[in-house]
Design goal:
With 376 residues, this protein is of the alpha+beta class. Among the domains are: 77 residues, no CATH class; 79 residues, ATP-grasp fold, A domain (Dna Ligase, domain 1, 2-Layer Sandwich); 74 residues. It is 29% helix and 25% strand. It is globular and about 55 Å long.
């Protein structure tokens, strides 16, 4: 069963559903793409049904309609970062993290935290409400900014996706950041469908502006990352479960940051696996198919496949927003897929899949001042 929801449903996902005759839940969003006769309601859910959603907005439906299911319990573990961390303490006993209510953040003694630390909502999405804090003075400044940001987060996402009532403080993990699209099969074994590297502009940057993948990234990390995922799947008992995982890796360790349940990379960005590797991630999950990475990589070149998000600065009013899209696209040498997003209803104005042989192109995109392409 696929549950479609805001903010974005790609044509590629819709075409995949139609070609494979995948079941789709009857809701307001799905009716924009399918006739009512093509849709299924809750009574059509079968035992051991596989579920996938393009958006975590759909989690609310699952909680309401399947409150005591194994699926709901797995989602709950993922969405509450503090619970996820607690259950993995057997694997990572020395990793520092603490959870607090929003009110308690202003009362605690934070002088002795093992800075640098990350502050973020216990239930969150993208980089909303995520802050890197290097010392106690920055902690105090961050709390002042947090008060201003709370209203913005609550206006954009439902509480099942971003909940600013509770926060987690955790030790900043040194190393490179990666993201994976994968699923646990019926034996809790991880099936990796893509690996992205997440570059940053500087050590204060927590944005999701760009991610990239390549033959080198897959070859270097596939085995080690899969081993970690297999341990997580066994420890948590996850089965038949798609997910998007963020982690940090250095020479000594690989530590998961968070796991996003029942979906792959958000905003249907996971579709880039088709461009990079010829992998339709939806078909692979529902058909319990595993990539033949050896053959895929042997047939691949050394290019970098990346996606970039045209994010809208928070200080820009969306009422009369205008995008200079032609000027923005000049920063991308070889766009493969261009997706225009409504800037008045979303925090982004475009998502681009692209290919390059030069990492400086991606570095340049990270450095862009998005005000240059937006006229109010």
């Amino acid at each position: 069963m696929i549950i479609l929801d805001k903010p974005y449903v790609s044509d590629f996902l819709v075409e995949t559903i139609k070609e494979n005759n995948f079941k789709v839940l009857d809701n307001e969003i799905a009716r924009n793409y399918f006739e009512k006769s093509e849709l299924s309601d809750a009574s059509c859910i079968e035992k051991d049904e596989l579920f996938y959603t393009n958006s975590e907005n759909s989690i609310n439906w699952i909680f309401k309609n399947m409150p005591n299911s194994t699926l709901t319990k797995m989602i709950d573990i993922c969405k509450q970062k503090s619970k996820f961390r607690s259950l993995l303490q057997g694997i990572y006993p020395n990793y520092f993290f603490k959870s607090f209510t929003f009110e308690d953040l202003f009362k605690i003694n934070a002088k002795n935290f093992p800075y640098p630390v990350i502050l973020k909502p216990d239930i969150g999405f993208l980089s909303f409400g995520v802050y890197t804090i290097n010392n106690f003075n920055e902690w105090q400044d961050t709390l002042s900014n947090l008060k201003k940001d709370i209203k913005k987060f609550e206006d954009i996402f439902p509480k099942e996706v971003v909940n600013t009532s509770n926060f987690i403080v955790e030790k900043l993990i040194e190393g490179d950041e990666y993201a994976l699209d994968a699923y646990f099969d019926e034996n809790s074994e991880a099936v990796v469908l893509n690996i992205f590297k997440h570059p940053f502009f500087n050590d204060k940057d927590v944005s999701d502006r760009a991610y990239y993948t390549s033959k080198e990234i897959i070859e270097k990390n596939l085995e080690n990352f899969k081993n970690v995922l297999d341990k997580i799947g066994t420890a948590l008992g996850f089965k038949n479960f798609p997910f998007h995982l963020e982690l940090r890796a250095n020479e000594k360790e690989i530590i998961p940051i968070e796991i996003n349940p029942l979906r792959f990379c958000g905003w249907c960005i996971t579709d880039i696996a088709q461009n990079a590797w010829g992998i339709n991630v939806y078909e692979y999950f529902f058909n319990n198919k595993k990539p033949d990475w050896k053959s895929i990589l042997e047939a691949s070149d050394d290019s970098y496949y990346y996606f970039t998000i045209g994010d809208i600065p928070s200080d820009i009013s969306k009422q009369n927003i205008k995008i200079n899209f032609e000027k923005y696209l000049k920063n991308i040498s070889n766009p493969l897929v261009i997706r225009i997003i409504d800037p008045k209803a979303n925090p982004v104005f475009a998502i681009i899949f692209a290919k390059t042989n030069n990492l400086d192109e991606i570095k340049n995109i990270l450095e862009l001042d998005m005000h240059e392409f937006i006229n109010c």
